[in-house]
Amino acid sequence: MVTVFVEILKLSVLLYVGFLNIRRYVLYLYIETLKQRLDAINQLRVDRALAAMGPAFQQVYSLLPTLLHYHHPLMPGYLDGNVPRGICLYTPDETQRHYLDELELNRGMLAKEPPKGELPITGLYSMGSTSSVGQSCSSDLDIWVCHQSWLDSEERQLLQRKCSLLESWAASLGVEVSFFLIDENRFPP
């Protein structure tokens, strides 16, 4: 009798664990669906923002991640030194890939990938009126460059100088860009 009870108890535990795993899997699928929907909404916002702007704005907006991920003497924003470069989980899109391919083909120089491991820039975020109701043809770009908290003072200064050079490059194209370096652990309130 005790053996039967133990077997029933084991079976009950297995069924319960199986039920929990099914619930966990369903929750995982639900979260993945929500993430895909959020990505689709974000892409729609970016597409609308770009459609409302001229070619220079589109070029600047599209290339900023590439110019912060790579560091090369032929690219806007280049300066000597060990400038922090590389955005976590960044993969160039078609336009950005085309820019990099042109750099390699026309100028014979390949933009080096950032070093492997933990990259210094955790994300780029377009703040302000971009893709909002308040966006107009004269809107500027406010870009948060979120970086790892382990960057030292010199590295932050180099990254800020690179951003200043990118602001000047964008201004030469008629696009106003402002960069704000944000420590990932110190978001403003």
UniProtKB/TrEMBL annotation:
<dbReference type="GO" id="GO:0006171">
    <property type="term" value="P:cAMP biosynthetic process"/>
</dbReference>
<keyword id="KW-0456">Lyase</keyword>
<dbReference type="InterPro" id="IPR024685">
    <property type="entry name" value="Adenylate_cyclase_1_N"/>
</dbReference>
<feature type="domain" description="Adenylate cyclase class-I N-terminal">
    <location>
        <begin position="31"/>
        <end position="187"/>
    </location>
</feature>
<dbReference type="Pfam" id="PF12633">
    <property type="entry name" value="Adenyl_cycl_N"/>
</dbReference>
<dbReference type="InterPro" id="IPR000274">
    <property type="entry name" value="Adenylate_cyclase_1"/>
</dbReference>
<dbReference type="GO" id="GO:0004016">
    <property type="term" value="F:adenylate cyclase activity"/>
</dbReference>
<protein>
    <submittedName>
        <fullName>Adenylate cyclase</fullName>
        <ecNumber>4.6.1.1</ecNumber>
    </submittedName>
</protein>
